């Protein structure tokens, strides 16, 4: 099958219309801001209060224990968000810098940034696909799409019908930016570049300031508020109970802090808070 591809004039006009095949850089934050964001949780705030009170009472073991809990929680959140910010850098490495296209009926080598919708690209083993395209010719073509789908095995591809609308063509007939040709060869007609690709939408999602509350996030927020209210209620109740029973103020504060920090070992089985033990006279 003779493939003519675009003319150079058409390619130049489409480049002006669609822009360069470059992914937009998302807004990123420094490590300090990411770290501080992890400390905005209401539960972390409660734990910091417990740390301060434990330290002021000389209960250094309790202080260290609660600080470890805070450190673990903060570290997990920090590394997850920091890793997410660097996804785009990883994705950009998954695109070949120089690619082969058919223009004016001839094979040309161009920079991937000059690729435009309508271009016909050559698919070959080792190619990191530079745009989303529909396969128009292939021979034993296998493509690794793990970066997009997580699929561990290469996907066998076949020729698609370019007369159909792009939305009607199945993924098995397409190759996507960021995927890698593992085996075989073929030709594909590009229909999306830069931010319009599936690859680009991932990068764009990193910059999206709108963060809709998912059901699981709403449930976690509700649970977090509920836990805080329960902690405040129990801590206040225990404190009032201790005062009514004429406990030393230090013991009242220590027991309340232990409850807030989750260290129930500080409450003696012979404590006046226990209804199952003999009362102190």
Automatic annotation (TrEMBL):
Membrane spanning segments where? 41-58, 64-82, 226-244
Cation-transporting P-type ATPase N-terminal domain location is 1-59
Descriptive protein name: Cation-transporting P-type ATPase N-terminal domain-containing protein
Q: Does the keyword Protein transport apply?
A: no
Tell me the InterPro entries matching this sequence.
ATPase_P-typ_cation-transptr_N, ATPase_P-typ_TM_dom_sf, ATPase_P-typ_transduc_dom_A_sf, ATPase_P-type_domA
- Which Pfam families does the record cross-reference, listed alphabetically? Cation_ATPase_N, E1-E2_ATPase
Q: Which UniProt keywords apply?
A: Membrane, Transmembrane, Transmembrane helix
Name the SUPFAM superfamilies for this protein: Calcium ATPase, transduction domain A (SSF81653), Calcium ATPase, transmembrane domain M (SSF81665)
């Amino acid at each position: 099958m003779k493939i003519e591809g675009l003319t150079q004039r058409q390619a130049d006009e489409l480049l002006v219309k669609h822009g360069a095949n470059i992914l937009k850089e998302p807004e990123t934050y420094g490590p300090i801001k990411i770290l501080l964001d992890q400390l905005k949780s209401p539960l972390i705030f409660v734990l910091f209060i417990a740390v301060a009170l434990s330290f002021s009472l000389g209960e250094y073991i309790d202080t260290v224990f609660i600080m470890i809990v805070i450190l673990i929680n903060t570290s997990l959140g920090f590394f997850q968000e920091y890793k997410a910010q660097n996804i785009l850098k990883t994705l950009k490495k998954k695109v070949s810098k120089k690619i082969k296209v058919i223009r004016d009926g001839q094979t040309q080598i161009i920079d991937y940034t000059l690729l435009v919708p309508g271009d016909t690209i050559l698919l070959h083993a080792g190619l990191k696909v530079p745009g989303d395209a529909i396969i128009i010719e292939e021979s034993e073509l296998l493509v690794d799409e793990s970066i997009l789908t997580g699929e561990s095995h290469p996907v066998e591809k076949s020729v698609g019908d370019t007369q159909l609308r792009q939305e009607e063509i199945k993924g098995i007939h397409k190759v996507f930016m960021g995927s890698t040709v593992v085996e075989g060869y073929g030709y594909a007609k590009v229909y999306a570049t830069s931010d319009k690709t599936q690859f680009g939408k991932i990068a764009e999602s990193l910059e999206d300031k709108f963060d809709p509350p998912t059901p699981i996030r709403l449930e976690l927020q509700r649970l977090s508020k509920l836990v805080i209210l329960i902690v405040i209620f129990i801590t206040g109740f225990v404190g009032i109970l201790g005062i009514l029973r004429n406990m030393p103020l230090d013991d009242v504060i220590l027991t309340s802090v232990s409850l807030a920090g989750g260290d129930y070992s500080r409450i003696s089985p012979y404590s006046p808070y226990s209804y199952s033990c003999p009362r102190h006279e």
